[in-house]
Write a structure and sequence with these properties.
- By secondary structure, this protein is an alpha/beta fold.
- 26% of the residues lie in helices and 20% in strands.
- An 8-stranded parallel sheet has the order 1-10-8-6-2-3-4-5. It has a 6-stranded mixed sheet with strand order 12-11-17-22-26-27.
- The longest helix is centred in the C-terminal third of the chain and has 13 residues, at 444-456.
- The termini are far apart.
- The relative contact order is 0.11.
Length: 465
């Protein structure tokens, strides 16, 4: 079977924390089943809690904790990509009791950040496991949702692995909140043995949260067509979130390209549809050969059902998917990611609107570097040439980034940039050459002004040929 090489997590992950007699005790213990209210009562003022990411964030514990707010202060909670409103934020609108620290924003997290209730943690997503092991001083209580325990004594974290193994390894107390609908998946370190768990809460019997598939616009489809032309047989794909990347996978289903592989951070709807179409073999991958490699999945019921107990897929922590040296091990790695603004030097700002934080660095910069380092690899940063705000159209290609905008992909890392007006490879180009190339990707209405600004500020000398 394709999944026969998958390594199952050892039931004793506490290296350096438990050994000898303590290790034997940990192996022998059984997790205690308690109520959400009893679990919330374990939290003390000043504690650091960790809720994990996406739909591994707890619900019944979250509500029980929020109900205790008047007895708590200075409780700090780490989370990421909230899929629904969090009770501890909703019940504490002034932030008097809880503080939230977030690795990557969803739309909900962004709104709470705008209200001053969420703090962003700058990071490359692939480095986060190392942060827990080296730089984060403590996690007092971690609460993660998982599929109920199986006959072998394992809970399954489902298709969201990310940095959860590092949380489990370093947390003083681990609580599992069960979610009967959680898809059991195949992966490294995704199964959690009961000996690792201190307490279990029976969670709500609710459907796993879904993320609607982003539909591509006409502009998005034009961008996708330019990228799809650059993808060769045997390419190994990473695709980010959004309509443009999904449009690329839709076009690949209709193309003659064969023997594609997938090594990605996020497994989205488009990649799964590409797998179901028979275009994914993984036969030319250097490792996880024949497998679809991912770190977390968000999408529809169809996506989750495809992953359920499917040994064609392997979910790995982000330090096993996102590090550039790992990405580069596969030949013809292709990274396809969105940005919201790019300047004439080639700097891409993908995570903020000025000082307002929008999403996060995620894995973009790491996949850009990993794809470039891959033999025959290609990195694509794509964007629509314009956007409209309050009825006013503006260019996404600018002389200078909006004041306060965060650079996600540096100019020296930039490879292919794509808009509906064309594609340009910036590698090896001078400042003047890349400015000219980027201006050629702008909407025609803005090219004259951009050219004048480039000359006035010395990016393109007046005598430049």
């Amino acid at each position: 079977m394709p999944g026969s090489a998958v390594q199952v997590r050892s039931p004793l992950p506490f290296a350096g924390r438990l050994d000898g007699v303590l290790g034997a005790v940990a192996m022998a213990k059984n997790a205690h089943v308690i109520s959400a209210e009893e679990a919330a009562a374990l939290v003390k003022p000043g504690d650091w809690l960790d809720f994990g990411a996406c739909f591994n964030q707890p619900d019944v514990f979250d509500r029980a904790l929020a109900a205790r707010k008047d007895t708590l202060r200075d409780v700090r909670i780490r989370n990421c990509l909230s899929m629904k409103p969090r009770a501890f934020l909703e019940q504490d609108p002034e932030g008097a009791h809880f503080a939230c620290y977030n690795w990557h924003f969803s739309g909900y997290d962004r709104r709470k950040h705008d209200q001053g209730l969420v703090n962003y943690l700058p990071c490359h997503l692939g480095e986060i496991p190392d942060y827990y092991r080296r730089f984060i001083p403590r996690t007092d209580i971690a609460v993660l949702r998982a599929a109920p325990m199986d006959a072998e004594g394992y809970f399954n974290l489902g298709p969201v692995n990310v940095w959860h193994p590092a949380i489990i390894e370093t947390a003083k107390t681990l609580i599992i909140e069960t979610l009967p609908d959680m898809p059991r998946v195949v992966g490294t370190h995704v199964r959690v043995h009961r000996s690792q768990v201190d307490y279990v809460i029976e969670g709500d019997d609710v459907p796993t949260p879904e993320l609607p598939n982003a539909e591509a616009s006409e502009v998005g489809r034009a961008v996708a067509a330019l990228i799809a032309e650059q993808i060769e047989d045997g390419s190994c794909l990473q695709v980010g979130i959004g309509g443009m990347p999904n449009a690329v996978t839709a076009l690949l289903q209709q193309s003659s390209v064969r023997d594609l592989g997938i090594h990605t951070e996020m497994l989205n709807e488009g990649l799964v549809e590409l797998y179901l179409s028979g275009r994914i073999s993984g036969a030319r991958k250097a490792f996880d050969q024949g497998l679809v490699t991912y770190s977390f999945a968000l999408g529809s019921r169809r996506l989750y059902d495809t992953l359920r107990d499917n040994d064609d897929f392997i979910v790995r922590p982000v330090d096993e998917t996102n590090m550039p040296d790992i990405i580069a091990r596969n030949d013809r790695a292709v990274a396809i990611n969105n940005t919201t603004q790019i300047d004439l030097q080639g700097q891409a700002a993908s995570e903020s609107d000025g000082h307002r934080h929008i999403s996060g660095t995620g894995g973009q910069a790491q996949f850009v570097r990993g794809a470039y380092a891959s033999k025959g690899g290609k990195s694509f940063i794509c964007l629509a040439s314009t956007y409209e705000r309050k009825g006013v159209r503006k260019s996404r290609i600018v002389l200078n980034l909006t004041a306060g905008n965060i650079v996600t992909t540096a100019r020296s890392d930039q490879m292919y940039v794509v808009t509906e007006y064309g594609i340009a490879n910036l590698k090896g180009l001078s400042v003047a050459e890349r400015a000219r190339a980027i201006i050629g990707l702008a909407h025609p209405d803005y090219r004259e002004d951009l050219s004048r600004e480039a000359r006035d500020h010395g990016l393109v000398p007046r005598h430049f040929l």
